[in-house]
Specification:
The protein has about 400 residues and is α/β, with parallel strands linked by helices. Helix content is about 40%, strand content about 15%.
């Protein structure tokens, strides 16, 4: 069982002026996949143990960041990057590999080089013949949508050990529920849990084909540390920071930043997600340029951002953070300026609505609203948006 001495908060980021976390077409979980083909992993060096990195949920976001990590260690004999895929995405990639077109340089993982698995059990079995399997996977990187959160603990359990570090790149206020699920999952242990926010426009155009069209920054903070001896919120030790910095330091195409206050970072990110994902869906699925270009919708976006900032700072105060950690007033303008230059972007929840796929309503919208209610912060505009979004979800059964 995951041993945790303090309650965790936000997996997330501090946006330094910047882009939203834009999961375009994300990875929707299916744990009942077909069996995987057999792969030959890198031979362990006699002087250095082979490192293992598992990418769980290699969709639009997982394939991009996992692919960039693979690219950085491609010539290494001491690191393997394994990809968990599903259904037609898995079947296509086994035969054809993964192709990524990117504003920061295209790359291809050929079928001969791709270590693809349709189940995490098969991923775990592939490394069991090593002499030392006490922590067969050094890193497990989860890139699922929050609508699949319930399945994460069971999915990653075969890959984890007391020395494994887990990075979860996911939208929404997921931390309380995720850590509770991990505690309850018998046999699941890890060294640390990190929260990642991807500031990226990345779409899966077709099975095995990913297009990265805008931004790309990844900001990560520690959600849980087995080595932290303080029961307070957002606690971590220097070795946790060093581990994640070492992982991404060679991944030069990815702008990377460490976030030391995840609660603040998560709310800062919500200052984009709640108004722009929210208004997009409430309007039946419109692009961001139409929101910022319409006077009434632009005004509404500002109102939702004001309510989000008020809730964020109340939450930070409740958890004992000083005022210097609060979200500044200019957050709203930075978010609007960025969106002004984004173009006709299709937010992730809009894509799900149009495709009639499960929407990230609970953790992306409802949890934020519930927290505002508990804190006594009035958020009438956000409440209306969430009501409209939930109505779409019920009408089309997008659960």
């Amino acid at each position: 069982m995951l041993a945790m001495h303090h309650q965790i908060v936000a997996l997330s980021i501090l946006l330094l002026g910047l882009a939203p976390n834009l999961f375009a077409s994300g990875f929707s979980l299916d744990v009942t996949s077909s069996s995987s083909k057999t792969h030959k992993l890198a031979a362990a060096d006699t002087s250095e143990r082979t490192s293992r990195i598992a990418i769980v949920g290699a969709g639009a976001v997982g394939s991009y960041y996992g692919g960039r990590i693979w690219e950085s260690v491609r010539c290494s004999n001491s690191t393997d990057v394994l990809f968990h895929l599903r259904n037609e995405h898995y079947a296509h990639c086994v035969e054809n590999g993964i192709t990524v077109t990117s504003i920061d340089g295209n790359f291809v993982i050929s079928s001969d080089e791709l270590l693809a698995y349709s189940t995490t059990e098969d991923m775990a079995k592939s490394v069991k013949d090593e002499d030392d399997d006490s922590h067969a996977f050094d890193w497990v990187i989860v890139a699922l949508k929050s609508s699949s959160l319930d399945a994460v603990p069971e999915l990653i359990k075969p890959l984890t050990s007391p020395e494994t570090r887990v990075l979860v790149i996911m939208n929404g206020l997921i931390e309380d529920d995720l850590t509770e699920m991990m505690r309850e999952e018998q046999g699941l242990e890890c060294k640390a849990v990190y929260g990642g926010m991807a500031l990226i426009c990345s779409n899966r155009l077709s099975p095995g084909v990913i297009d990265h069209s805008y931004a790309g920054k990844l900001v990560v903070g520690v959600a849980y540390s087995a080595d932290a001896d303080d029961d307070g919120y957002c606690k971590w030790v220097e070795s946790d920071k060093k581990a994640i910095m070492d992982l991404f330091e060679p991944v030069t195409p990815v702008p990377f930043e460490f976030e030391d206050n995840l609660l603040r970072g998560r709310w800062w990110k919500n200052c984009w997600n709640l108004p722009f994902n929210g208004i997009s869906v409430a309007m039946g699925g419109i692009t961001t340029d139409r929101i910022v270009g319409d006077p009434s919708l632009r005004k509404l976006a500002y109102k939702v951002m004001d309510e989000t900032i008020a809730t964020a700072n109340a939450d930070l105060a409740k958890h004992g953070f000083p005022e210097e950690d609060y979200l500044p007033e200019d957050t709203r303008e930075k978010m609007m300026v960025f969106t002004d230059t984004m173009g006709a972007y299709k937010p992730s929840t809009m894509l799900d609505l149009h495709a009639r796929k499960p929407m990230e309503v609970k953790y992306l919208f409802k949890t934020a609203l519930d927290r505002a209610t508990k804190l006594g912060v009035p958020v009438p505009h956000l409440e209306t948006l969430v009501s409209q979004i939930e109505a779409f979800q019920r009408h089309y059964k997008l659960y």
